[in-house]
Records
---
Amino acid sequence: MEEGREGVAVFFCHCDGEVSGMVDVPAVMKYAATLPKVVIAEEHEHLCSKEGIARLKEVLGDAKVDRVVMAACSPRTHGDIFLSALESVGINEYLVEFANLREQCAWVHEDRMEATDKAKDLVRMAVFRAMELEPLEKIKLSIIPSALVIGGGVAGMEAALNIVSKGFNAFLVERGEEIGGRVRKLSTTFPTISCGIPCRHDCPDCEFTPKIEEIYAAGNIEVLTSAEVVEVEGRIGDYKVKVRTGVEEEKELNMGTVIIATGSRTFDPGRIPEYGYEFEDVITSEEIELMYLKSRKGGGGAKLLRPSDGRTPKRVDFIQCVGSRSLKPGSNPYCSITCCLYAIGHARAIKEMYPDTEVYIHYTNIQAPYRGFEEYYNETSSLGIKFVRGAVEKVEEQGGQLFIGYEDADLQRTEETTTELVVLSVGQEPSDGTAKLSEMFRIERDIDDFFMEVNPRVVAEDKTGVFIAGCALGPKNIRYAVADGRAAAENAIRLMEQGFVEVEPVIPEVDEDKCIRCGVCESLCRYGGINVGEEEAAEVIAALCRGCGLCVASCPAKALQMKYYSDDQLRILLKTAFSIPVAEAEHERG
Ligand code: SF4
Ligand code: SF4
Ligand code: SF4
C-alpha cells in the first residue's frame, strides 16, 4: 500500500432497484459522507457489473484511502469479485468491511423510512469497524506434486487416471485384494452404462476391465492392494501418510493432495428381522449378482436358481427400500438412489430369461431420477412385471414354504401369499473405514455419517487439500461416481499445478503473557490447529487452524484474540449500533 493513504471510501450499490427500491440510497450516502474518516462516498446502479467494477477501480486509483466499506449485497454473493477488484488497486482485503443493505435491510423491510434508517445504522457500524481493522496477509503453503487416492473403485480409478494424465504421480491404496470396487461384483449394469457392443448384457467387465488394465499400465500409478491408511500427519499440500501393506509392513508416503473414494457398503438386511433374511430363499440384490456371475463363469449364461433346491423360481418378490427411507431403528432415513433401477433391471432380466416366472416389485415410491431412467421404468410396466405399492409386513417360512405378507395401497388391502424367492433391495451405508479416515484427515461427516464436501458457498476455501469422490459422499450410481472421481482429480490437479496454496490468515493470535498453559484450547480443537507445550505458551498452527474460533471463546485467560474478529473489532459494532458506547448502554439497562 502506498504511504500516506488513510481514510475510508464507502461504495453504495442500487442493485438494479433491489436496494434502492426500499432504501433511499442518496440519503444514506449523504449521511455516510458526514462520518469520521470517510473521504469518499460513491453510488452505482450495479456495482458488480463490468462498469461498476471499472468505476470502483477508477475512483480508488488515485484516492488517499486505505479502507473500504461496500454497502451492497451479502459478501457471500459478490464478495470475491469486489475483493479482487480492490486488491488490484492496492487495498488490503482485510481492510474491507461489508454493509449488507440488500439481504439484511432492503429485503426484510416494508417501510422505506425504517429501511433507510437501518441502512444508516449498518453503514455507520461498518465504517467504524473498518477503522479498527488491521491489514493481514494470506499464508502461502507449498504443495507436493503427488496425489494419494484412497479406494480403488470406479471413482478412485477415474481420479487416479486423470491425475497421471496431467503428469503427476499417484498412489492408489485399496483395502481389498484387487482394484475395481463393487462393480466387479456386478454381472450387468442398468440401464445406460453400455460398452457399445451390441450384446444382450451391459457387462461391467467390458466397461471396466480396460480401466483396470490402464491403471496397471500407467507408469506413474503405484497400486497398493490389501493396504490401509493407518496414520496421517501434516497439512494441505504436505501429508505424511502411513499405509499398512501387510501384517508387519508399512509404507510411508509424502503426498500433496488426497482423494478419498472409499465407496459405501451395502446394508445388512439381518437388521430388519421381519424381512426373513435368515431363510435360504431370501437373498439380497448383491447375491443375485453373484449368482449370475457364478453361473456365467460355469458357461451357458446367467441363471436364477433358488438357493434351497437349485430350481428356477416360479414367483419372485422384490422388496424395495430395505434399510433405506425409514425412521425405524437400524434403518437409514435417506434414499439409496440406485436400488429401484437395480431391482427393475433384475426384474426385466428375469422376465426375459424366464417368461413364465411371475415377478413382483413391492415399493413405496420408485426413484428414477437420472436421464433415461424414467423411460426405462415406464417401459418395464408393460412387460408383465407387477408393481405393488405398499409396505411388506413380513416374510416367513413354514414347512419349507416361503410366505410374504404385504400391503397393496392401491387396492387398499393386505395380502398374504406364497412365493418362491424374495430379493431384498438393500441400500447403501458409509463404508467401514469412513469414521477413522474422517478423523485422520479431519474431514467432517454429515448427519448420515458420509463424508461431507466443503460447500464453497459456505466455506470460502478448502483448507485440507483432501477431496471426496463417489459413494463416500453418499449413494450414487456408477456414472455419477465416475464423474465425481474426475471432478475430485481436477481439484487436486489445480492445486498441484499451482504448486502452492494461500490460506486465510483469520486465525487466533496468542498473548503469551496471558497464556496460563492450561491446554483447554488444544483439547477443544478438532483440527490440530493449536499446540500448548509444557513450558511454552500456546502456538497456533496456521496451516491447520480453520479459524472456527472455539478456542478463542473458551480460553479462560482471555489469551487468544481472533485476527479480523478481535474483541475490539467486534465491540465497535455494538458501540456504534446505537451511536452510544457499550458502557452507557449497560448502565441504561441497569
Ligand atoms: S432407490 Fe428406490 S429402493 Fe432404493 S431407497 Fe430409494 S426408493 Fe428405495
Ligand atoms: S486456553 Fe488460553 S490460557 Fe489455556 S493454553 Fe490455550 S491460550 Fe493458553
Ligand atoms: S480457531 Fe478453531 S481451528 Fe483454529 S486453533 Fe482454534 S479451535 Fe482450532
---
Amino acid sequence: MSAPLLTEPPTGLDDLSVFPASTARLPHGHLSIGGVPLADLADRFGTPVYVLDEDEVRSRCRTYRAAFPEAHVLYAAKAFLSRAMARWIDEEGLGLDVCSVGELELAHAAGFPPERMVLHGNAKTPRDIETALRLGVGRIVIDSPSEVARIAALTGTAGRQKVMVRVVPGVSAGGHEKIRTGTDGQKFGLSLTDGSAQHAIARVLGQPQLELTGLHCHIGSQITDAKPYLVAVRRMVGLMARVKDSHGVTFSELDMGGGHGVAYRPGEAALDLTALARRLGAELATGCAAAGLPLPRLAIEPGRAIAAPAGVALYRVLSVKHTGPNMFVAVDGGMSDNPRPALYGACLLYTS
Ligand SMILES: Cc1ncc(COP(=O)(O)O)c(C=O)c1O
C-alpha cells in the first residue's frame, strides 16, 4: 500500500475535461463513465480497478486514422493491454506495437493478426524472438547489434523476416527526464551520433534472412509540441540518404514511434494531432525530395494518447492526513497499478 503525495488540491466536480467524454455527474458527487456508475464498478470488481471506455478508445483510434490517412498507425500495447483492448484496436484497423512475449501471446490469443504487430524491446529473450517468428509478426525492431545475428539465425535459411533498426536521432523531448529516449546515454536504440546505427544497418543488410524495410525512432513520451518530431524526421532522412549513398538501398517505411502528449490536469496542453500530421508529412516529403529518396510510408505508435484519456483507475481512500505542508491521501493501490506518481511525480486525484 502506498500514499501518493497530493501536490495540488483534489479536483472538484467542476472540470471533467481530462476524463473520458462520457463521464457524467451523478447525485451525491458520484461519477459514471459510459453510463455505468463508478461506485458500482468498485463494489462489483473491488479496487484498485482500471475502467476503460470502449467508445472513447475506438473514437481515438478513428481520430488517428483520420489525421494520418496515409500512415500505418500502431497502438503501443505498453500503455495498456487486455484481450478486449486488442480486439478493439484490431477492429479499428490499427497495428499493434508489442515488446514482450506476454503482450504478443495475449494479443494473438485475442485474435490480433500477427502480421500487423511489431516487436520492440531492448532486451529481447530468445523466447520473445522465437515466438515472434513462429507467429509471423510483421516487423521486428532491432535495438542492439547482437540481435542482428540472433534474429537471422533463428529465422533460419528458409525464412526471411522483415526488420527495422531503432535509431537514436539525438533529439531530447518528453515530459520528464526519465521518458526521454531520443538522445544517447539511455538504453534504447542505436546512436546516430556515434555511428552505431549505421554499423547495425550494414550488418542487417549483410544478412540474407533479414529484410530491412526501414528505420525507427521513438524520441520520448508526453511530447506536446510537433517541433522535436520535425528535427527527428530531418535526421532520419539524413541517415536514409547516407544509407542510399553507402549501400544503394532505399526504404519503404519510416516509423516515428509514439510519445504524443495528453492532458493529465485540466488546462494542460495535449499534442495537436492534425498539426503534427500536416507538419510531419510536409517535412518528410520535402526532405526526401531534396535528398532524391522515394517517400517512405510513415508509421506512428501512439500509446497513452489512445489509452490514457479513455480510462481511469479507481481506488478507495483509506486515510487522509496532513504532515507539514503536505496532505497525504492513502489509497488501496500503489506502484504496481499506478507507477507514475512514484516514478516522476505525476498525480491527478479526484475525490467524491
Ligand atoms: C517504441 C515505442 N513506441 C511507442 C511508445 C508509446 O509511447 P506513448 O505511450 O508515449 O505514445 C513507446 C513508449 O515507451 C515506445 O517505447
---
Amino acid sequence: MTNLPASADELAAGLASLDLEARLQRVARFAGRKVFTTSLGIEDQVITAAIARSGTAGAIEIVTLDTGRLFDETRALIDETERRFALAVERYRPAPIDVEAYGARYGLNGFYDSVEARHACCDIRKLRPLALALDRAAFWITGVRRGQSGARAETPLAEWDAQRGLLKVNPLADLTLDAIKAYAERHDVPLNPLHARGYPSIGCEPCTRAIKPGEPERAGRWWWEQDQTRECGLHVRDAASPITPISSSKVQVPAT
Ligand code: SF4
C-alpha cells in the first residue's frame, strides 16, 4: 500500500500514460477503501472486466445501486457478471421508508411531473444509497467518459470530490466509445442486450428510452426534461445539488 497522492492533479498525471488495467492497478495500490460503482452499461462492464483481469478485485469493491426500477436485462446482467468474473457486485437499495414517503408525496411515477419530483426520486433511489456505498471510501471509481455528453466533456482522470470528501477516479475519461467497444469485444465482456436495441446509456426503466440515429448518447435519459437538468446528481461537477429531501430517513444525504 502507498500513501494517498498529494493531489487529484498528481494522480491524474500519473494515470494519463497508462492503459486501463494499469490505471486500476495504480489506484488499487493506494491505502484506503476503493469503491467502483457500476450501472452495468458498457463502460462499467469494461471496468469490471479490467478489475478482474488486472487482479485488483480484492482491493477495489464493486457495487451497484439497485434502484428498484432497473430493467430486467440489467438485473440479469448483474448475476451474469458475477458468474463470468467470479466476483461479487454488492447491491445498495433505497430505504423502504424513503420509497414509501416518496410514493405518498409524489406517486410511484411522480418523476414525470416535475424536475423537483424527478430529482427527489433520484435522491432516495440513487444518492442516498450511494452515500452508504461510499461511506469511509478514499477513492470512488466511475465509468464517466468525456464523450458521453456536453456536461461530461471536461471530466478529468481524477478529481477531488469535495461533497463526499474523496478522490474520484474516472479511468475511462479520455477513451472513446469505439475504444470501449474494442476492449469489450477483445475480452468477451458480457453486455446489456439493450445496447443493441438503441440504448447506449441505460438507467432506470421508466426514465430511459432508445435514442434515434444522430442523437447524443445520453439523449434517452430523462428525455422529457431540458438538457441542463439531465443528470441524477451522482456526477454533477461544481454545481449546486438538485436534491430536495423528502423524508426523515436517518440516511445522510451528501452535503451539498
Ligand atoms: S432514474 Fe427515474 S426511476 Fe430512477 S431514481 Fe431517477 S427518477 Fe427515479
